[in-house]
Design brief:
Helix content is 32%, strand content 23%. It is of the alpha/beta class. The chain has two domains: 327 residues, Rossmann fold (3-Layer(aba) Sandwich), CATH 3.40.50.12780; 97 residues, 2-Layer Sandwich (GMP Synthetase, Chain A, domain 3). Strand 7 and strand 8 form a beta hairpin. Helix 5 packs across helix 6 and helix 8 packs parallel to helix 9. It is globular. The N and C termini lie far apart (49 Å).
């Protein structure tokens, strides 16, 4: 229990009291230092002295990604001379946004990742193989590196791609854990099988997986997670995070959702009208940061739709847990009367044998509705295979997208353009 922060084992009432004690300090800080929130409070006639509880936050209109893109500099609360590191968001839902961090913010980030890796059963005897870039203005690589150092574990920085170098590193260094996008684990397995590498007898015991979901809404492994486990029986831990929140939700060994770190952020789940939804209802993850110095955020809507769970976990934590991301609000597709999110399409494509990789492209057709085109990487292209894919989609989702077959290597290059930090599997042309 010593690796679990005390606040995470306290009652939900105590956790709530702790968070509500932070609200006046945060609002006063924003009132004094943030040009954006000064204008925000004034425009909406907000009396911050009357905002004392999490429910009271509803008096303050939400902050959106559009606000961050349009007024980026106005969110900065410190002089530029105090900035330690500059990063940008990945730009998944629009133009990348610049984020600045002070030395204090870097320390906060390191603490978050330290308790997150500890949540995923990490300790100082582990050696982590980091398959994420440390450069390209990417916060995640820096965060993982800083957190592992604080954990006292070993780290070997290999970066993304290059399966040959990954296995050479595994052989030389004998790491115990991978930090990677889960679909890349399948690429590693494929490479190992082609090159006679006995990966199952390697030193790797677990993987902390980023960027892609491993689980269904009921926490069972989804197709991607199950494909990995069927081939390589290592422990898999999902984690969800974003640059804006500077915080991660990481699974423990129970695999029942990512644990909230209440020292880091206050979380609300809101519907399309910015009203709170209850447990058992999907809501947009909306965060208020705690302890951020350079660019704190208040009621920031992440765009990610999730379920949340409040019953205590078997690991001893009493914190709220976040379910897998159902989809991103702006990526919702309305296709032939059916509402879909891209992950539902990914899950089906991952289930179809001989589909090696794919890119989903959504556009607006001549009558103003959504069209779905899927570029499928396969070595088995034929009319009968196209029919098989479409029939499978009709069975599972009642609708079938358009299909274009391409060589898997071409799809791979499109998924990983030169400056990309994450695999591109969704292109929105609407």
């Amino acid at each position: 229990m010593s690796s679990i922060p005390k606040i995470e084992t306290q009652s939900q009432a105590q956790i709530r009291a702790y968070q509500e004690a932070q609200i006046p300090n945060l609002l006063a800080y924003l009132q004094q230092h943030s040009k954006f929130y000064q204008k925000h409070f004034e425009a909406h006639q907000i009396d911050i002295s009357k905002v004392k509880t999490i429910e009271d936050l509803a008096q303050i209109p939400v902050t959106t990604k559009d606000d961050l893109q349009t007024h980026n500099d106005d969110f900065l609360c410190v002089d530029k001379s105090k900035i330690f590191d500059f990063v940008t968001t990945s730009g998944t839902l629009g133009e990348p946004v610049t984020f600045a961090m002070t030395d204090k913010d870097i320390q906060r980030l390191a603490y978050n990742e330290y308790i997150s890796f500890a949540c995923a059963d990490g300790n100082d005897s582990d050696i982590y193989q980091l398959m994420v870039t440390m450069d390209r203005r990417f916060m995640a690589g820096l965060a993982y590196y800083s957190g592992i150092r604080k954990l006292g574990a070993g780290i070997v920085r290999v970066g993304p791609g290059n399966p040959g170098l990954q296995f050479d590193t595994i052989e030389r260094i004998k790491p115990t854990a991978l930090i990677t996008v889960p679909s890349f684990i399948l690429k590693l397995i494929e490479y190992a099988e082609k090159n006679g590498i006995d990966y199952k007898k390697s030193s790797i015991k677990k993987a902390v997986c980023i960027g892609e979901s491993l689980r269904n809404a009921d926490f069972s492994l989804n197709t991607l997670g199950q494909k990995i486990k069927d081939k390589w029986d290592i422990e898999l831990y999902s984690t969800y995070a974003s640059t804006e929140m500077g915080t991660a939700f990481t699974e423990c060994s129970a695999g029942q959702g990512g644990h909230h770190h209440p020292e880091m952020i206050i979380v609300e789940f809101l519907d399309e009208n910015d009203q709170a939804v209850g447990e058992g209802q999907a809501g947009e993850v909306t965060i208020t940061t705690i302890g951020v110095e350079a660019m704190p955020l208040l009621r920031f809507k992440t765009g990610d739709i999730c379920y949340h769970y409040t019953e205590p976990c078997t690991c001893g934590r009493n914190t709220m847990r976040l379910g897998p991301v159902i989809g991103r609000k702006k990526q919702m597709i309305k296709y032939k009367g059916t509402t879909l999110y891209p992950p539902a399409l990914y899950d089906l494509l991952n289930e179809i044998e001989d589909v090696e990789n794919y890119i989903v492209e959504v556009s607006t057709n001549a009558i103003g509705t959504d069209d779905i085109l899927i570029y499928v990487g396969t070595r088995k292209a034929s009319e009968s295979f196209e029919k098989k894919i479409k029939d499978y989609f009709r069975t599972k989702l009642r609708v079938a997208p358009s299909i274009i077959f391409e060589n898997p290597e071409i799809i791979h290059h499109k998924q990983f353009p030169e400056m990309s930090r994450k695999p591109i599997t969704f292109i929105d042309k609407r």
